[in-house]
């Protein structure tokens, strides 16, 4: 999957819009750890619109500003309900690599999961064709979900 994502990152214009999120439940830490990958050019467009800063440069701006913008954007566009209770996103940071922004965050204080609902609105208001793919792993079992304009959230029952 990384090779595919990197291949498409080489093109500044692309005909599809996708992000991927890798989520894993860490039983020992009682947390859900997330790595979200988004094409930097698409994310930059979304952050410019979201913040009203038309000159924002996601690669070359001040790191504190970039982290502030990403944290606020993700907190308002990516949500998780565990056992029908909302959980707070804890942003950890980001990394730019091969045309992709890797965002790292977690959801803490999760003792047991019987149901999980993920709402991922990232970039959907900017690109009608946007699809957000989610891979969730718990107890060595992988669930794959797709979120788009017609399905803004997805649910897993355990």
Give descriptors for this structure.
158 residues; alpha+beta; six-stranded mixed β-sheet; four-stranded antiparallel β-sheet; 3 helices; 22% helix; disordered N terminus
Question: Can you give me a brief rundown of this structure?
Answer:
The protein is of the alpha+beta class. The chain has one domain (2-7, 18-157).
Outline the structure in words.
This protein has one domain. The protein is built from three helices and ten strands, in the order αββααββββββββ. The chain has helices spanning 2-9, 40-51, 63-77; strands at 18-26, 31-39, 78-82, 85-87, 89-97, 100-107, 115-120, 131-138, 141-148, 153-157. It is globular, with a radius of gyration of 15 Å.
Mind summarizing the main beta sheet?
Answer: 6 strands, mixed
Q: Could you say how many structural domains there are in total?
A: 1
Helix content: 10-25%
SSE ordering: HEEHHEEEEEEEE
Which strand-content bin applies to the residues? Answer: 35-45%
| Count of DSSP strands | 10
User: Which overall shape is indicated by the principal axes computed on the Cα atoms?
Assistant: globular
Termini Cα gap: 26 Å
Strand arrangement within the widest β-sheet reads 5-6-2-1-8-9
Structural class: alpha+beta
List the helices and strands and how they pair.
Blueprint: H1 2-9, E1 18-26, E2 31-39, H2 40-51, H3 63-77, E3 78-82, E4 85-87, E5 89-97, E6 100-107, E7 115-120, E8 131-138, E9 141-148, E10 153-157
Parallel strand pairs: 1-8
Antiparallel strand pairs: 1-2, 2-6, 3-4, 3-7, 5-6, 7-10, 8-9
């Amino acid at each position: 999957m990384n090779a595919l994502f990197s291949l498409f990152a080489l093109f500044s214009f692309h005909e599809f819009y996708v992000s991927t999120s890798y989520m894993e439940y860490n039983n020992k830490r009682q947390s859900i750890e997330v790595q979200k990958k988004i094409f930097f050019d698409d994310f930059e467009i979304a952050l410019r619109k979201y913040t009203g800063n038309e000159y924002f440069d996601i690669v070359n701006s001040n790191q504190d500003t970039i982290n502030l913008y990403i944290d606020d954007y993700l907190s308002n566009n990516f949500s998780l309900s565990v056992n029908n209770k909302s959980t707070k996103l804890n942003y950890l940071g980001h990394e730019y690599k091969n045309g992709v922004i890797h965002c790292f965050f977690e959801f803490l204080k999760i003792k047991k999961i019987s149901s999980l609902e993920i709402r991922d609105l990232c970039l959907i208001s900017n690109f009608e064709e946007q699809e957000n793919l989610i891979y969730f792993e718990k107890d060595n079992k992988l669930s794959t979900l797709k979120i788009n304009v017609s399905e803004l959230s997805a649910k897993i029952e355990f």
